[in-house]
Prior knowledge:
The protein is an alpha+beta fold. 50% of the residues lie in helices and 16% in strands. Residues 1-23 form the signal peptide.
Amino acid sequence: MNSKKLHKTTLSIASAALVLALAGCTSTGPTQYQPLALNAQEQDAVTDKPAYLQPLYRKLFEEGKRNEVLNRMEIGTAAFYRGDLDLARENFDAALETIETVYADNEAATQARSLWHEEGRKDFKGEPYERAMAYYYRGVIYLIDGEYDNARASFVSGLMQDAFAEEEQNRSDFAVMMLLAGWSAQKMGSPVLAEEAYDELRALRPDFPIPSADDNVLILAETGFSPRKLADGMGHYELVFRPGKNFKEKHVVLNTGAEQFELAPVESVYWQATSRGGRPVDAIIEGKAAFANTTADLGRDLAQLGVTARVFSPALGGSSGQVGNTLALIGVASMALSANVKPRADIRYWSRLPDAVHTSTMRANVADVSQWQASYTDIDGNPVSLKSGVFRHYQDSQGNHVIWHSSRAR
Length: 410
């Protein structure tokens, strides 16, 4: 083949590669969704809600099915933090109903997961730690209601969700779920089930204080802000986790007026986000990444080959320089294409979660917690200048208490 024909052929190949790459560029980036228009019934539903929840309910209806689970989680926590337990129940139940369709320990759920993955995970179902925390909040509400059997079932389900990581199952290490499953069983009058849960907790946290059989007060304190999800890597197809921002509190000391004590940190939500079965995770890469990486490698190889050809073109004759330029062009186009075929990481996340959960149990006659105060220290034990936060006190019909505290308003 003479140099003119070679030049024409290589330019045609390069042009085709560039067209293909640039065509891919038109579809880059996350899919843009237009807000759905609210119908009259939905408008009424929004205006019927408390003012602080109205923007969240509007978002629920505007974003539709693809974000329904996420928005239900956000509404549920916002309502729980305000003490609106009816709305919290309603929204967590709705979120968990969808989650259980996909993530349960049965054949139907396995089939649902298969179909769901084939559809590209368009609808938000959350990472394992998010699904587990939905069961955590629902279980705490069951405890508040004195429904100990349902509370235990919810915490056990949370442990199961922690074990699910895509299609791989791992050992659960969600300590707060183990503690609360044991507490629920204890209140059910099932010491054997309680001891089984506490044994799991001891294996995971040997030094953690186990509740006494006659304790009637459970204190849960939440600190910090939710882990964040970010897109990383070429084409932003890798999902990585980062700690929440703009908080320093890591330890909680309670002053009840009668005594002062530090709460035991039982769970790091950030650790749960960044681990699977106790093993750290650097990133989560979606299904198409392997194919796209192959394409990217090919592009790099061709680009390098093109540079090499240009370097040696004086020794090989003029045509090799044109070949080198063309191969380099194809290589760059191929790498651009690879960035476009990778699905961008799904960085939607449950923003109202805490960074950590702290706890204590005791035997006490609790009449009022309105005068209770909390103080905080950072990771090094230095005081953190922060207001005492919110306390909520619930007593069930059997005389057991749940005292919930947050260092931050949500």
